Every structure is written in structure tokens, then in C-alpha cells.
Amino acid sequence: MGEGPRTAAVMDTIRRRIGSRALAPGDRLPSIRGLAASLGVSPSTVVEAYDRLAAEGLVRSRPGSGFYAAGPVPPPGLAEIGPRLDRAVDPFWVSRQSLDADAATPKPGCGWLPAEWMPNAALRRAARGLARADDAVLSYYGGTRGPLALRRLLARGFAGEGLDIGPDRILLTGSGTQAIDLICRFLLRPGDTVLIDDPGYFNFQALLRAHRAEIVGVPYTASGPDPDRFAEVLAAHRPRLYLTNSALHNPTGATLSPAVAHRLLNAAAAHDVTIVEDDIFAEFEPEPSPRLAALDGLARVIRVGSFSKTLSASVRCGYVAAREDWIEALVDLQVATSFGGVSPVAAALVLGALGDGGYRRHLDAVRRRLARARRDAAARLDPLGIRPWLMPRGGFYLWCRLPGGRDAASVARAALRDGVVLAPGDVFSVSRTAGGFMRFNVAQMDDPRVVPVLERALATAGD
Amino acid sequence: MGEGPRTAAVMDTIRRRIGSRALAPGDRLPSIRGLAASLGVSPSTVVEAYDRLAAEGLVRSRPGSGFYAAGPVPPPGLAEIGPRLDRAVDPFWVSRQSLDADAATPKPGCGWLPAEWMPNAALRRAARGLARADDAVLSYYGGTRGPLALRRLLARGFAGEGLDIGPDRILLTGSGTQAIDLICRFLLRPGDTVLIDDPGYFNFQALLRAHRAEIVGVPYTASGPDPDRFAEVLAAHRPRLYLTNSALHNPTGATLSPAVAHRLLNAAAAHDVTIVEDDIFAEFEPEPSPRLAALDGLARVIRVGSFSKTLSASVRCGYVAAREDWIEALVDLQVATSFGGVSPVAAALVLGALGDGGYRRHLDAVRRRLARARRDAAARLDPLGIRPWLMPRGGFYLWCRLPGGRDAASVARAALRDGVVLAPGDVFSVSRTAGGFMRFNVAQMDDPRVVPVLERALATAGD
């Protein structure tokens, strides 16, 4: 008697699972009753299928304990895959290595403060407040722009910087990166050119590649992008967007000067380029510096930011401030691609913590602590011949030149083998001309392993 | 004496803000000291600029109270814009109207349960637990796949459905929609064809349009997509993806039969089509039904879901279960486009609430309550001549035919004028052949305004 179509289907199901490694050799097969229920067949059909597969040698039965996958079976189509233990040093390198490193790994290459530097007391109070919030806050998707109270608080902060806009021109998002991603979806078509700083934040490259954009770089100087090169690149490449950090530029820690800011805006206007200003490090500034968004009044500048650096990276909340018609289009895109916007629970935690009396004092203390940490880190790196390109006014980055033309990628690979995550220069450089630089996070340098590992890695990488 | 370049720049700044309506007529100009600081110029430069603008008539000074924008000024390039009060009845219509409606508006068209139906006590306990969590949970981005404990809990649930995979094949995301969006970024190129159910969840259309995909539909029957048409469409259009809900299909509430499931998988295999199975309503099922993901063992099926319908839409957390190599690629895409993955705070709240002893009992109670609500809603709609296409086994939707060939979009527009948000059939239909249907959320029908408004709207829409 041949097998019926249902038995054949059950057998195919198990064959596929073994073929795709969903069932590895030695794995127990699903229970007969369970599989029967989920496939909508009778238990006796499953028994029949398992018996036939056992006859084929694909599974084994152990009396009293059920059926197991035999094997090994070559995994069709998966042979080329495998865990990417030896990732290329590309724009994902720093993020993947630092996000997935375990808690004990020193991470001078990462882009965040140690947890004990963060305003955890304010966040805990906000979480207790959340436990008493209305059912609606706990349950619902929330409005498409995000809670009005948080948008109002942001608008008041912008007014203090000379940017006067109403809360309707602010859209809350799931993160600063998501905000930029929405803008790219709105303004870019595949093949469009986007201008970024060189060096600049590595994830801008990763994000723009996901949008299939052409990326061109402009050299970053101690007072912002080189304005002559900026104008030349605009004329030569006609980019659709320019994506930058103004205050405490990542990775250099440099600050845009007023004169450069004016020249950038004039050049952008002449070539009809939209500017996305990611202001994620703004709160680390000792005093305000020029902002493209404030100078321009959000005509062609879009301002983006988040709370990940100063409040919490775990509570995901970012924002976009832009022209009203653009915000309306971004709302549609956010609904289409995330359904709701920001989590109302996340917004409630942010609002609670920002409104906490301790938050401003906490920020003042963090700024002072970072000033000391910048000096200490520079003093510890100096004996290794590692020198800051400039001493930033604020923030947690030092962009440093390595001694003797060492290749930062080789140094970073050697340090990773010793369990330390670094941020080699070329991941920040679209032209890959920053191979002699390394970005250090001064708040992540206290572990006693960091300097010895770095010293050994420099020696390994040779001259 | 002519104005200096800095004065001119300040004047340009204010002109642009007025031109873009950042400063509306009558708005107070930024304070002199504030603008001077943010533009990096001296206060006297700002005074000079304001005086010159006053001389031009663009601003007015009021003695003792500062400077104000005069106006009106035509807003360049913004003339065609405006609040979209009269939105087209398109795939965004239901989401925008229901997400942004105020709390008191009855929303039988929306896609969620009333807040008082949700497990708020479990969520409040989870929020109190969060207030005591480690600093790391409150502060850090977290690992790229999301917290292991929650992925393990999901894997145990999948095993109970006959899908045996390890937690490494699960990626947590910011929402179920974000999970599908990541998959589309990974698998689609602009112009690729994607197959969806007709009728089917409206936001799939919005999402696919954001990816510039060509959309084709397959008629949905009481036991799943019509398998003959499915095979024909695969042969004729060669879609890259098929995007569907299996259990408690949205909007019809129908359930995929085992026979149809097998035929779909065979046809998909023959044409090398990847299937995305969005299982967001699974927990509302009275007993498990066939799952494409379980039948296929995640070889060509990708399973997607979230906790938005049963636990909280505010705490944003979704997931993808897929082939290991695909998960690895999706991780990179999620880092590029959101930086971190799911919020660790959100994952902690979900894990706390799912692990809460009350959650299973709560779900049982909700399923019983929904069974009553389905019957009650059908009984209330019956006198209006509104009849369910079928009576679903679970969930909160009734897909109903309107009487006398009424146009659902006209009925929905009339009801919206009376303050009730409905879900007209054509927003669910890529072929726009569901104009005589309406989706009702049976948990949102208790408000006494709903039936009278509906009755009036039916009368207004005429025969």
C-alpha cells in the first residue's frame, strides 16, 4: 500500500526541517499529538509518517522515548553560510562587535556611556510612574506623531536655541536612526547621491547603503566640513541630501563654526540640497554652538535627535523636526513601516525622566565628569604615542592618530582577540583614508585591561 | 553704510523663517541674546538685523516688548500643502483616522481592543519590576537580536505548535510591521512583485508601496486563498513574496485549511516564492489551526508576530523567525536602520507580563468575552441588514456585507462626520472589489452612538 497524501505531506514537513537544520541530528521530533494538531491530520497519520521516515533511515525511534532525527544531512542552500565570527572591518564592525559583546568586555570603541553614568534613579522613578499611568498609555498604539506633552517639551527646548516651531512640526520616532531612515525613505530614490562627512558616523554609511544611495564624502576639518570642498562636491555630484552632526561631531568631537555654517547653508540653497542635522550629542555641549537648523529655520534643514546618549539607549525614542508638509509625509511612512510611531510607554518614560528634578543636575555632573575623563584618557594614550587630533569641547569621543603609521583595523582585530572592542578609523571614512586613526570613548577607558591590550595590539600591528 | 555679511545672514535667517511659516504673522521673533548665541554673532548684529527688517516692513517692533513678524507673506512652495482633513479613502485611511482619533471617539473600524480589555494589571506589575531592573537593562541598546530570555520563551511557544527552532533563529524587532519591513528590505528590490490576500490587511499595501513593490492579489476564501488562483498568479506574475495572515485572517476572520496550506506550500516551492506569515492574531484562536511556518519548518516561510493585540500595542515589540542566514542579514539591516533592535525596556515589560501568572487566565477570559461580543455585534448589525460573510472562530473582526449595495467608503465618510471611525472594505482590497463590505471590531461596538450613526450613514449613502 502506498502512502496517502497526508502521510506524504507530514513526511515532507519533517524532511524539510531536517534539510534546513530546523531539526539537527539527534534532535527529538515533534510529539505525535502536537504535530497532528498543528498540521490538521490525525495522530495515526503522523505515526505512519514517522515509521516510514525511520524505514528510510532519516529518523530513528528509541523505544519508550519517541523519534529522533538521524543525520547528518547536507543542508541544501545553506552551505555558504555560517556565523560571521571573522567579520570584515566595515561600517557594521563597531556596532555589531560592541552591541553583542558581553557586559564584561571593555569597549573603548563603543558609542555610549557606561550604565552607571546614566540617570538611572530618574528612570526608575519614571518606571514607577508608568506603573500608575492610565490604561490607555499602557495599552494603545498612541497618536501618529507621538504624545503631545513630549513634543511640547522638545519645542520649548528648541525655542531656547533660537528655533521657534510648534509641536506639530515634530514627529517622535523609535530612535534617531529610525528618524533618519524615514527621511531617507521620503527623500531618496535608489541611486540618489548623499553627502556625508569624512570622517563621519559609520552607521550613516550602513543606513545609506540600505537605501541603495551613492555616498560621497567631504573632508571634515576642526571647524566643520571643508566649505570649499563642500561647494565643489555639491556642484560636481548634485547630492540630494547632506547628512551631518553639527555639535560635537562624531567621531572627531569638532564643532561647526558660524562662518562655515553660513557658507554651507548658502551652498545648499544654491544647489537645492536638503540637510539632515543629527543633534544627538547636543546635550553634552558646555555651551551652545551654531546649529544649521536654527540658522535656517527648518526650511531646508531637518533636525533629528534622540535621548539615547544622555538618558537611555534602552528606552527607544527619537525625533524629527521639519517642514510641516514633510512631517505629514513622514507620518504616513512611519505608519506604513512601523504601524504605530514611538512607543507611548517609551515616551512616558522619557517625559518622566526629563521632567525629573534630578536630570539637569545629572547632566551637569556628567559634563564635568567627561571633561576629566577626556584629559585622563589623553594622558593614558600619550605614552603609547596615540595623540588626539583635537581636544573636543564636550562629549565622550577622542579622535586619535596612531603612532608610526599603524593600521587601525589591524590594531582593532588584534585587540578583539584579547577581548577589547575598538573603533578603527576607516569604518568612519567613506574614502577609507582614516586607517591611521582610532576613535576612543573616554568614558569606557577605566578597565585596567584597556591600555595593556592596546599596547600589545600596537606592537602586533607593527610599524 | 551697507549691512555687513553677518547682519545679512541674520536677516536671511529671519526671512527664511517667515517665508517657511516657522514664524507666522504676529509671532514674536527670537530673543536678541538667544539668537545671537545660537548664530554665533554679537547681540548688536541681531539688533541691527531686526532694525533693518523692520525698515523693510517684514517685522514690527513694539516698544518694550520686542520684535514680531509682520505679514502675511506668501509661503513659497507650500501653497499646495495643508492639513489632510479630507483624506482619500486609501490604505492609510483607517490607520490615520483611528490612531489619531481622540479617546472618546467610537472606533468600530480600529484594529485593537479597548484598553480595559488588556492585561493592565500584569503590565503594571511588569513596570514595577522594571523599576528594580539592572542599570544595564535601563541604559543600554542591548544585543542585536534582543534579550535571550524573551527569544527562548518564544521558541518554547513555537515548539508547542510543532515548530522546533532555537532562539538564534528569532530576531526581536520594534513591532510586527517593522519585522515585515525588514524582510521587505532584505528580499525585495523596487519593482518586484508581491502577492497579498484580497481582501487583506490594508497596511500591507501601504508598506509594500513604501518599498515600491508591484502588488497583486489573490481572492481569499473561507478556507484561505483560492489555491487555483494562487497557482495561476504565481505562474503569471512570478512574485518574490507572498504576505499573509494564516490564523484568524484580517479582515475576514477565516482560517486556513490544512488542504489549502499544503497546496500553497507546494505551489510556492514550485515557483520559489518566499512566504511571510504574520501570526499576530494567533493567541485569539480557540484551538491551533495549520501554520505554514510549522508545515514548512521555516525553509521558505518566515514567521512574524507581535504582542500588540493581546498584551499591549504601546510596548512595541515584534519578532521574526526565519532561516539562520536570513536572521543574520536582518540583524545587519536592523542595525543600519534602527541602530539597536527592540528596546530592552520593552522586552523586559513583555517578558514580565507574559510570565505573569495572570496572563494565561486573562487570555482565556478575553477569548470567552470575544465569543460573546461576536454574537452580540452580529445581533446588533442584523437589523440594519449588515451580515457577516462568515462567523470567525476567534478574534475581534467581523467582515460584513452592507445591505442594498451600499458603498462602504460613502458610509464610512458619513459616519466620520458623525464622529465614528469605520473600516470600509475597499481599503482592504488591492483590486478595490470590496466596496460593499465593512470590517467591524466587535470589541469596539458597545458605545450607544455606534448603531444609530451607522443607521444614519447607511441612509445617507443611499441605495
UniProtKB/TrEMBL annotation, chains A, B:
- Organism domain of life: Bacteria
| Keyword annotations | Aminotransferase, DNA-binding, Pyridoxal phosphate, Transcription, Transcription regulation, Transferase
Identification of the protein by name: 8-amino-7-oxononanoate synthase
Q: Which family does it belong to?
A: In the C-terminal section; belongs to the class-I pyridoxal-phosphate-dependent aminotransferase family.
Q: Please give the Pfam families that the UniProt record associates with this protein.
A: Aminotran_1_2, GntR
Q: Where is the HTH gntR-type domain?
A: 4-72
What are the coiled-coil residue ranges? none
Gene Ontology MF terms: DNA binding; DNA-binding transcription factor activity; pyridoxal phosphate binding; transaminase activity
Lineage, please?
A: Bacteria, Pseudomonadati, Pseudomonadota, Alphaproteobacteria, Hyphomicrobiales
